[in-house]
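ESCALATION

Customer reports they have been waiting on this structure for their group meeting. Please prioritize. Original submission:
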Amino acid sequence: MRMDPDLRYDLLAIDLDGTLLNSRGEVSARNRRAIVRARRRGLRVIICTGRGLVESSAALAQIDQREAVIVVGGAIIADPAANRTLHRFAIDPQLVVDATRMLLDHGHAALVFKDRLAAGYDYLVVRGAQQIALEPVTEWWFKKMGAKVRYLESIEDDEHPEHTVRVGACGARSRFHAVRQRVAQAFGDRVVVQHFQAVTSRKYARGLADGDTLDVFEVFDARANKWSALQHLSASMGIDTGRIAAIGDELNDEQMIEGAALGVAMGNACDRVRSLADRTAPHHDEDGVAYAIDQILAGAW
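Update from on-call: job pushed to the front of the queue and completed.
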């Protein structure tokens, strides 16, 4: 693929949920056509998502993604065509043990996410001696995404500690305040913590207290974020980071929106991402990605 010398950028990083995907979890026809145009002009389109590779597979198929993808919030760079891991930022095994215990102490079943291509499964669910039940939304997500899941009582029985890239939980936002404080105090700058609203079926968002939301709480190695993964990947491609554009909406897009030469916030983006962005595209239900691509291809952005 020859890069277009008239374009200001060589690589376009695009988030999935709240960005490329609409509220129905689909890539619109307009967004698909825009990605085809971008590729024809020589832009390397890289998907950067908080989902795992298997959880992203339906979306990747909709856009015929053959380039490398950045998944699990930047913790893994994978080749979807060859189905192999190119690079990962694994978490120190002892840190995984400690973080899991903290989640259990605060009444959360721990979702220990693995590099599936190394471990053979996606999630190790640790319930503790008290056998903490999973949130129904988590069970729904596993089924919807076809995730491979294993269950343990104790994290000390994990057979693949070296393949962990994330430790997290899902539940009501109000229940995460205490554990977030504890994680911050215990680990400091050794980890990155992401805390944001979960992608969910509408029925699971009902029954919460006024002002509460269903949230995802995640702990990563300090090196793991979408921008650090983009830096690693672009270096392997021979692309200068000054020629990267990025589009996103949520807190796990923050570093790549700030680091990219062009950072684009969706119209539905959180306030922090909007404040860091150079430009704002329409809402994800209004084909904002297609609009942004057209502005880039026209040289307006």
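Sent to customer with the following note: The mean pLDDT is 93.
Escalation resolved.
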